[in-house]
Amino acid sequence: MKEIMLYRGCTIPVRLPAYEAATIAVLGKLGVKVVEMDDANCCGAQYVESVSRMAFAAMSGRILALAEKESKDILALCGACSGSLKINKHFLDTDEKARKEVNELLSEEGLKYTGKTRVRHLLQVLNEDIGFEAIEKAIKKSYKGLKLAAHYGCHVTRPYEIVQVDDPENPTIIDRLIEIAGAEAVDYLGKTRCCGGPLLAMDESLATHIGQDKIRNAIAAGAQGMVTACVFCDIQLTQVQFGEDTDSSKMIPVIPIVQFLGPALGIKEDVLGIELNKTNPDIILSALQGAK
Amino acid sequence: MSNETHTPSSDFAKEIASIPGGEVINKCIQCGICTASCVVAYVDDQYRPRRLIQKILIGKRDEVLNSDQPWLCMTCRMCEERCQEGVSPAEIFHAVRVLAAKEGHIPKVFQNTIEKVLCDGWMLADAYTDFNEDEREDLGLNPALAWNDTFTKKVKKKYLAGEESA
Question: Is ipTM over 0.85?
Answer without folding.
Answer: yes
